[in-house]
Amino acid sequence: MRLLIYILIILSAVTFFVYKQESNLPLSPVSPPSTPLYKTATSTPNNTASTTSTPLSPITPISPSLIKPKSQPVLDKKAIDLIQQKINETPPAPLPPISAPLTQSALPPRLSQQVLYDKAVSRVVNFFCEYNNGVETASGVIISSNGYILTNAHVAEAFVNQNYECKIRQGSPARNIGYAKIVMFPKAYTSSGGNSWEGHANDVSIWKFTRSANSDEALPKEFPYYSIDPNYLPKKDQPLATFSYPGELLGYEILLKSLNMLFGETIVNDFNADFIASGMSLSSQSGSSGGILVDIYTNNFAGLIFGVTTDTSINQRKLFSLSPYAVNQVVKNETGFNLVDFLNQ
């Protein structure tokens, strides 16, 4: 009996030592993936934003319990009814009329899951935003070769008036590839109060890579990216792929060290020029804010995820996204430029 007690004590000590060693591993630098997510440049591009204007505030050490996924706006019945009312309206010019629902005979060949995933894994990113009271995680997508990133306004609103850099991670598991700052945040989102129909319609922000995760390396000359066609519309009942970094069901250790990009699928229930309402998806979780919809036939960007309904069960939630047209309109209303022109400045 005494021998058994000694053995248990020894095993407990070994387990505790291994745990302490693992928990002290740094997040960065990390070993690069076997296939680089992008090619490293030999010099910093001329259009890279400067990060030297104001020193960054130090990050206060945080408790593991304060690392959490950024909550998506939960849409109450009033917000849902207003969005549905807008969806039922005729889409504004210059978009073409909404086409008839898909029929089985009209379906083109769908792309393989591997093809869809291989494109998304080098373009969809995880925001890992540290601040004095904790860390929030969310999703985003690279939308230009010179390093602009699209996500929601509600992801960015805590950092708008700060000289703040958010850590940008990528891959499965997510690893730090660089840092980014806000370069476009719509005043219409702030003035609307955020959680309203106008707020949801303007739930867009754009960030830009400022520096590499490795201080010895420059940013790449070109990033892989999704282009956004503002004239794109889905079809009713069309399946769309979803890509995001949700963390609602995950604990601290996984969010920190083993967060993977999630690949799911959703079915378009209804839409108009601005909003896309779709059925159950694994992306209907906190942390998926800023995740994307992708056309499974063309592998093109189809929408920006911004909110879910209030159902407790994930498999009963409805997913709400902004259309490519809506994203372009938010940028145009805020800056006076179409999205493409803004990204090419």
List the helices and strands and how they pair.
Layout: H1 2-23, E1 67-69, E2 74-75, H2 77-88, H3 113-120, E3 124-131, E4 134-142, E5 148-151, H4 153-156, E6 166-170, E7 175-184, H5 187-192, H6 197-201, E8 205-212, E9 239-244, H7 252-257, E10 262-271, E11 275-278, E12 292-295, E13 301-309, E14 319-322, H8 324-335, H9 339-343
Parallel strand pairs: 1-4, 2-13
Antiparallel strand pairs: 3-4, 3-6, 4-5, 5-8, 6-7, 7-8, 9-10, 9-12, 10-11, 11-14, 12-13, 13-14
Question: Would you mind describing this structure in some detail?
Answer:
The chain is α+β, with helices and mostly antiparallel strands and about 350 residues long. Among the domains are: about 70-95 and about 110-120 and about 225-335, Trypsin-like serine proteases (Thrombin, subunit H); about 125-210, Thrombin, subunit H, CATH 2.40.10.10. Helices cover about 25% and strands about 25% of the residues. The protein contains 9 helices and 14 strands. It has helices spanning about 1-25, 75-90, 115-120, 155, 185-190, 195-200, 250-255, 325-335, 340-345, and strands spanning about 65-70, 75, 125-130, 135-140, 150, 165-170, 175-185, 205-210, 240-245, 260-270, 275-280, 290-295, 300-310, 320. The strands form 2 sheets. Strands 3-4-5-8-7-6 form a 6-stranded antiparallel β-barrel. The longest helix is centred in the N-terminal third of the chain and has 22 residues, at about 1-25. It is globular and about 50 Å long. The termini are far apart. The relative contact order is 0.18. Mean pLDDT is about 75; it is low at about 1-70.
